[in-house]
Amino acid sequence: MAEKNFRLQCTVNGHPIDKMVDPTARLLDTLREELHLTGCKEGCGQGECGACTIFMDGKPVDSCLVMTIQAQGHRLVTIEGMAFEGRLDTIQQMFVEEASVQCGFCIPGMVVAARALLEEKEDPTLEEVRYALGGNICRCTGYHKIFRAVLRAAKIERQLRLEGKPSQLKDLPGVHPAPSADRL
Amino acid sequence: MQSYYVLGSSQFAMIENPISPLPETVCETECACPPLEVVGHGLYRPDAPEKLTGQAKYIADLQIPNILQAYVLRSPHASARIEKISTAKAQAMPGVAAIMTAEDLPAANYVPLVRNDLPLLAASEVKFIGQPVALVAAESYEEARAAAEAIEVQYEVLKPSLTIEEGIAKDWILWHYQQFTGDAESVFNNPEPGMHIYEATYTTSHQEHAYLETNGCIVTPEDRGGFKVLGSMQCPFYVQKAVATALGVDYQKVRVVQTVTGGGFGGKEDAPSTPASLAAVLCWRTRRPVRLIYGREEDMISMTKRHPSKTVFKSAVDKDGYIKAVDIHYYVDGGAYITLSSIVLWRGLLHASGPYRIPNVRTLADAVGSNTAPNGAFRGFGQPQVAFAADAHWDHVAQQMGIDPLEFRRKNMLKVGDKTSSGQLLAESVGFEEVVAKVKAEIDYDRLLTLPRTPGRFRRGVGLSVSHYGVGLGANGGPHNFAAANVVVAVDGSVSVAVGTAEIGQGMTTVMLQIAAETLQCPFERLYLADTDTSQVPDSGPTVASRTTLASGNAVRDACQIIRQRMDNYLKERKDLPWREAVSACHVGGVQMAAQGYYRPGYKLDFDDQTGHGATYEIYTWCANAADVTVDTWTGKVKINKFVSGQDIGRAINPALVEGQIQGGALQGIGYALMEEYILKEGRILNDSLSTYIIPTSMDVPEIVPVIVEHNYSWGPYGAKGFGETPLVPAAPAIINAIANATGLRLKHLPATPERVWAAWQQEHSQDSGV
Ligand code: FES
Ligand code: FES
Question: Residue B298 sits in a domain of what CATH number?
Fold first, then answer.
């Protein structure tokens, strides 16, 4: 068995990590087993399903395709970092309201992929939403309720910005990640 | 100190369940049901926040100290005799805690199903690739796998039987059913003048459930010699029985706890019994916790799938367009063991002639063996295959006879007062006409049907298909037809609702709690669904056959009614007290604030094996699907412009969740129709990953419009029937019929991949000078 002979230093959900780990393990396994962040899921282990999607320096990646050593010095955010003090992120809240969740296994990856889209595009079209979620398989929902949730979240965040109100996450204190490109 | 941020399991402050004003059309029928306060509203799922924040614990998320990792050595051959298994080398490998073969099992070597014919571990022969042969438990997964690979098995390889045709030739018949109504033979032998007779054969491939979470479980030793099984599953009481059988102990010594389950669709009905029993025997041997979680490839190769099928369909229609007789032979490929194939076949038999009035029916149904993994339950359960055959057939017949295919269906479809092919009288809740009318309007059928058919590369067309679905297990269900529920009201007014069926994503939690809130007249937020733990919940039967809302929902309603009645009797004129005060007063007054509710089918069910007659299902859900497609005749690619799926479900307890079920089910049906297919070579699945077995993604999904029709069922909870499977059933024939309407091609095999559509087009037009 591979040894935990590598000192991993990075940030996860805004917190500094300094831990001896196996550098060749998949980042997915290191997050789940060493850091106990089991929100990211393994659906295939081969980069096919997107259930393991996390943010690395603000970009969504399949953590099953990343070697732990590649995370050295990078900023990671997992689904556990997206809600704060019992408040859901706008996207998460819209998934609740639009009944977008069924079994839930794809959902952490979906939410991360959707967040990544809204960070890039304030006002995505349905086609852009479809495209952005193209690497995230859901076997339960038929996707439409997910699309609706993402489009509604975009609209709400746009509205908040227009009204000059910071979006519900951006003004929260602390080291948790906010949905702005510089923090994700 | 842990240096990362983990969300506490606090309440999610922002989730408030609004009870929206009643939509105007809550009840479509002319019954006098009063508007309801909780039932009929799209309340938010209480389980959503945990799933959305990564806190929900699926089986692979549990971390248990001192746990062993299990690995299963599987057969590389489709058919072989086991001559010798040598484990000596493997035993000496690092980290190994136990190695087991069939000889080492503590008790029965089978999974308890219809005929108990599936062995846990192959003893003297293997009958499919992927069949478990030996088990290893080791300190790490890598060590377990390395040791398993060091086990030496000598096989004498035999010639496998791999198709339905080969199975028939060898007379490898696992099961047979039949149905005879009227005298079909004489109709075909002496046809009336002008009668239209047509015969065709339809075939379908495997379909994979592709639940996003693979099968897996953990078994831990408990005090007093007991065992606890944690896992992803649909039917905890099936698993309890299987593990108790494998260990030779009383059921009550096995405690099964369902973890949050990442999709089932039938694939976690009987199938989890195998990994649970395998992990349990390793736990029994080592007295340590054992974890067995299948990798995707392992899951795809060894677990159940939808049965491939072949249907020979012959029909006689009189000159006025009324169906006079059918003669159907339905074959399914059951795989190497019977497992659940007999029950799958039974549902196929009873739905084979479709939702039509047919005076003369002869249906033969056979489950044929093959050296492939046993096929099992999958949303629709033997019905989608034969529904494709039947409704593609009728569409073609109508066209041949020059009748509008929809008009043809209208003429023949079942209504209240009609009898099904099994002779069962339909006494109520047949909202078929309304479903068809609404679906037709939504897809804009009339306009699309009469669109000028322009020559050229892209051809557009519309297709429709209808089906019925017998809710629940029906006359074949035996002890699984019943359900119990326990409801307990605590002193503070919070309520525990315990049922033995499982939340697998379909929304059972929400639906049960809505029914309970409505009946108790208590706030939805005060209700909690008990963990699905066999030591906490009563057996409510399996979570299958679209039965949960009807069966468990009725049991919950019954229990709540008992409690509410007691409260009202005690409170008398104080009945209208706010919930909390009412509960408190009742507790002080010694009112018994807990009850068990019970459900049994609303009609007496029976079935005769010889004739295939009887009152087979208590109630039916009625469904129509329609597709508007454009076919690219150069590539064979079929694009669905719009898909409409409508069902009469009795009552939508939670319309938002109903829509989600319809869209998800329809999309699985679209995948089945156009893209999902296993490629087998000598019994080996070649596409054993999600990148080679293609299911629809967000880029593939067309617009899917759900249509809900509510013709209440008098015995259903608030009129509800059950429908989780129905949207899938007529999806494929609707699409195939649309392709026919667009191109004239009558495809007789599923899936209609671009290759097949293109090849059919080429064959049809090989004389043309291009398109
Ligand atoms: S588990 Fe990483 S993409 Fe499927
Ligand atoms: S909700 Fe089950 S896979 Fe998406």
Answer: 3.90.1170.50
- Is pTM beyond 0.80 here? yes
Kindly identify which residue of chain A lies nearest to residue B233, measuring between CA atoms: A103
Q: Beta-carbon neighbour count of residue B425 at 10 Å? A: 11
Do A107 and A140 share a domain, yes or no? yes
Domain that holds residue A65: 8-82
Residue A147 in any domain: the answer is yes
Domain boundary among B572, B599, B626: B599
Would you tell me how many other CB atoms lie within 10 Å of the CB of residue A122? 11
Q: Residue B597 CA to chain centroid, in angstroms?
A: 26
- Compute the 3-state secondary structure of chain A and give helix, strand, coil in percent, each to the nearest 5: 35, 15, 50
Task: Point out which residues pair with B323 in neighbouring strands.
Answer: B317
Asked if B543 and B501 touch (Cβ cutoff 8 Å), the reply is yes
Report which protein residue has its CA nearest ligand 2's atom 2. Answer: A103
Any catalytic annotation for residue B28?
no
Please, are residues B449 and B738 in contact by the beta-carbon 8 Å criterion?
no
Cα of B209 from ligand 1 centre, angstroms = 17
How close does chain B come to A112, measured CA to CA in Å? 10
Regarding whether A70 and A29 lie in a shared domain, the answer is yes
| pLDDT averaged per 10 residues, chain B (length 771) | 27 47 41 73 94 96 97 98 98 98 98 97 98 98 98 98 98 98 97 97 98 98 96 98 98 98 97 98 98 98 98 98 98 98 98 96 98 98 98 98 96 97 96 96 94 88 97 94 97 98 98 97 96 96 96 98 98 96 97 97 95 97 98 97 97 97 98 98 96 97 98 96 97 98 97 98 77 45
A24 assigned to some structural domain: yes
Q: Which domain, by its residues, includes B691?
A: 309-474+610-764
> Would you say residue B153 lies in a domain?
yes
Residues of B in contact with A134 (CB under 8 A): 697-699
* Closest partner CB to B7 (pick from A46, A80, A134): A80
